[in-house]
Amino acid sequence: MASSTVTPPQPERPPRPNLAFRRLRGRRSPAEFAAAVRRAAREIGERVGCDARYVHRVEAGEIRCPNYAYERVFLHMFPGRTLADLGFAPRSSVRGRRAPTAQDEPAGSESRGGPGPYDTRNPQEPRHPHRTRPPHRTHDNYEESDVLRRAFMTGGGATVAAASLDPLGFAHRAAAAERAVRRAGTGDAGALEEAVRQIRLLDDRHGADGLYQRAAAPLRAAYALLDAGTTRRTTADRLYSGAGELALSVGWLAHDSGRFDDARSHYAEALATARTTGDAALEAHAFCNTAFLARDAGRPREAVRAAQAAQRVARPLGSPRLMSLLALREAGGWAGLADRVACEQSLARARALHERGRSDADPEWMTFYGEAELEGLEAQCWSALGDWTRAARHARRAAELQDPHFTRNIALYTAELADDLARGGRPDEAAAAGMRVLDLLVEVQSSRVQTMLAGTARVLLPHRRTPGVSAFLERHAASPRPARAVPG
Description:
- The chain is 60% helix and 0% strand.
- It is mostly helical and 488 residues long.
- The chain has helices at 19-25, 30-43, 52-60, 68-77, 147-151, 158-164, 168-179, 186-206, 212-228, 233-256, 260-277, 280-296, 300-314, 320-336, 340-354, 371-384, 388-401, 407-423, 427-440, 447-460, 467-478.
- 50% of the residues are buried.
- Among the domains are: 13-94; 145-278; 402-488.
- Helix 2 (30-43) packs across helix 4.
- Residues 92-142 are annotated as: Disordered.
- This is Tetratricopeptide repeat protein.
- InterPro entries: TPR-like_helical_dom_sf.
């Protein structure tokens, strides 16, 4: 476990809350507002990893001026307003920034006909010459560092996503910190947090298979930064929390792509980080992922124990949504043990907690958890219990409710639906759902989804003379096979 040397805190100007931005959020929760920001970004061709944590930081005044991508999105969302109207400080007044000059235009920039080093868009997308370019960075503590944001941007399918993952900029920063005995700063913490957001964003869209190997390098760099130490305890806490969340994100990529041993190692690393620093939220997240992995790996009793441990840790955090998800993790374990009564009790508890609604205490990583995910996880429970009719009903509802942004989850829920229909004796409907999954797999790379679909194809083989089933089986046979098996 990496350690960090923390010296006594230095005097620092306390942030001033951004009340203007808070008023613009209105009655929406931070997670709901973050979703609106992401939608607005897509409208203008930008890609930002906005989540509830980012909204909290803006409102708390920790982000005094947004980076250029966020600036364009905010001005699009609130036409006619300036950054000052949104409660932000002038860019030139923020430490580590200065107004752009002609000397800042880097070689190979738009003025010379090619994309510059700060252009994060897909080279195939139309250029927008009216957009303002960011100036050259001259300070290590540049707020909302773009280092990892650039590393995790993508504008196309999963192949492009994998090719665009270039974490070397971050890794070099960490290596330089060790060589020069430079303390890690707030810019490093911000870059680490942004890396977590971008990994999750890419996984939502494209699945894990093309991302795992590339995402491991930023994790090594994160722990190198912990070894470099920091001068402020608040920064150290952010670095530890960020490193733990990054370990969980990388672990999930391993988990979803069938590398269960790797996933278990990453989850254990995150749990150790959480316990070292007394971070209850990170510990609950680590136990949550561990429970899910245990269920998938065929260890249902361990899944129940891990989910119950997560609930004990999470109860004081005050997030009903988190407790709801953890109850679902427990339900999955009980379903694996064929304990229908205990599973139904956990499912009822999960629904009751979910109905309490969102709160500011909800962790930022839970932006994926809404009614669609609840329905999808309940479908998996009924499937494990062999109740194919109920499983299909919940899986269908999950696919219908899912936000289009979460392409990977739509593929997962539809694959669950296809399998439940096939096992429930409805081959034509199963084949039609399977066709929809194959359409989504053009964009998504997930061994879990591919393995589920392979199981559905085997169940449908006795019905291969049916035209719809035959067409599905032929197309499935011609599609790429998953690299390794992943239990559904």
